[in-house]
Task: inverse folding
């Protein structure tokens, strides 16, 4: 289960709409709390792929990830997951996403159709890495 406040969800949706028709991506910073991930901040980062390959792929450069992790650490937070958009596609992780994901983290996928964020779902990879499972998003009170 992942707890995200409405403001951070709105930020992720807005990022997906801003980067349309390309994929956006970013980190979700917060805390792991006994079976629940608490997202306190969405941290937008750029998509590392070449222009023509930006659709339906996302990849975060190691230095971007390190910068995000340092930013989180300075605030006493952890990277609890990643978010990215699927332009004109459903909010379901692709095979590529599965092959490039890690267990434990949450993966939020935003479906952006014609520039409008129409769906947002969270996913968690099974510990055997075989597939993603739907993860419930609960709304969290602001810290
Ligand atoms: Zn994807």
Result:
């Amino acid at each position: 289960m992942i707890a995200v406040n409405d403001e951070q969800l709105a930020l992720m949706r807005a990022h997906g709409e801003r980067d349309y028709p390309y994929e956006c991506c970013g980190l979700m910073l917060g805390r792991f709390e006994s079976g629940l991930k608490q997202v306190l901040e969405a941290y937008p980062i750029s998509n590392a792929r070449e222009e023509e390959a930006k659709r339906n792929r996302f990849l975060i450069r190691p230095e971007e990830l390190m910068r995000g992790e340092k930013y989180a650490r300075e605030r006493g937070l952890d990277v609890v997951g990643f978010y990215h958009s699927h332009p004109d596609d459903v909010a379901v992780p692709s095979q590529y996403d599965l092959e490039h994901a890690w267990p434990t983290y949450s993966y939020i996928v935003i479906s952006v159709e014609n520039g409008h964020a129409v769906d947002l779902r969270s996913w968690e990879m099974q510990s055997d890495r075989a597939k993603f499972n739907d993860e419930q998003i609960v709304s969290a009170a602001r810290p």
